[in-house]
């Protein structure tokens, strides 16, 4: 996996390669009791504590020079409750293991993001989401969670038990404690029919509301320097299953999306002037395809090309204007952008720091190939997102601080007050949390 690549010296790097840190101590607890003991010990030693998942965040949200808790032994399914239709899973379980295990049991999550490398707690704590008309982020599918707090005690939180903690901790940024187990709502496994189809950007923007309301899951990728997009619609299907054939799957997903795409990225990084030409070729190379399969095989795809990413949620009704401004900025700026811009949507939810908290949202994600200078592009894009009251993804590059978030999130004060109560001495603090939540 490479994402938790830690050298012998104890240096830890994230997946995107843009965050490096050397913790004083690494602990890999094999049980909740061991984890709680490690938290108490750190407090005694005057060290800060952070849990780190697969390192898939592009921010330093998991970085610490204190005690780094690795959850790779806290994995697997604890319990499946078929009456309540829930599954309880250990916090360090990678999403791909959860998806495969659920499928074996004839179950599935309702919605998910497009990458499965993350741990369940890392993904939910940073607000990982897919796209959906009715179904929201992974955190919004949580029914209960178990949290080790700063004094080493273990809290169970749900709508009935510790409800005020539950509201915040489903997407807690690691600021309220260390999540040790998560109970997700699940449903009987179903089939999704996917339709991928190139479409001119002007048409997508003109018909955006219709495309979003007519499909359960709609997303598209726009190729900068072109007027082209690739759209993807996923809807439930009665079947029969028609998976992507092995060869076509290898060609489309491994060769085109990962192999050739990687070559194009290397070329673009070496010779930025050819980027617009590459974009035109890439955006016309994809042909329409349809396939039907179980959810995780449709929602997710392998990502072997490493990148750095910024993503903002804007109010859904601001999407078209925001994207038009982004396109005009790229054309005006002379920037050479070699990576498609991804657009998804989510319904409003009731989680304090969710990017979709209390508002229907559209997500715009900008990427740059790892090792390519990204600051100029991201800075210009962020200026546009912020002008539309954007809320950045907690695990992706952004420059916002607590002052900004206090205005952007109606329930920001509620979250920070809870943090004052659960972690008064800031045991779980790091530089990133100091910036986004304040002291």
Q: Could you tell me the strand content as a percent range?
A: 15-25%
Q: Calculate Rg over CA atoms.
A: 21 Å
The gross shape turns out to be: globular
The unreliable regions are: 1-9
Q: Between the first and last Cα atoms, what is the distance in angstroms?
A: 35 Å
The chain-level structural class is alpha+beta
Strand elements, count: 20
Total of helices = 14
Helix content: 25-40%
The profile of the biggest β sheet is: 8 strands, antiparallel
Tell me the strand order in the biggest sheet.
16-13-15-14-18-19-17-20
- Average pLDDT works out at 92
Q: Can you characterise this structure?
A:
The chain has 439 residues and is α+β, with helices and mostly antiparallel strands. The protein is built from 14 helices and 20 strands. The chain has helices at residues 32-44, 95-104, 120-126, 163-169, 201-206, 208-214, 246-270, 275-285, 295-299, 319-333, 375-387, 402-408, 412-422, 431-437; strands spanning 12-13, 20-21, 25-27, 49-51, 67-69, 77-81, 86-90, 107-108, 142-148, 154-158, 178-185, 187-188, 191-200, 217-222, 228-237, 289-293, 307-315, 341-346, 361-369, 391-392. Strands 16-13-15-14-18-19-17-20 form an 8-stranded antiparallel β-sheet, sandwiched between helices. β14 and β15 (228-237) form a beta hairpin. The chain is globular. Residues 1-9 have low confidence and may be disordered.
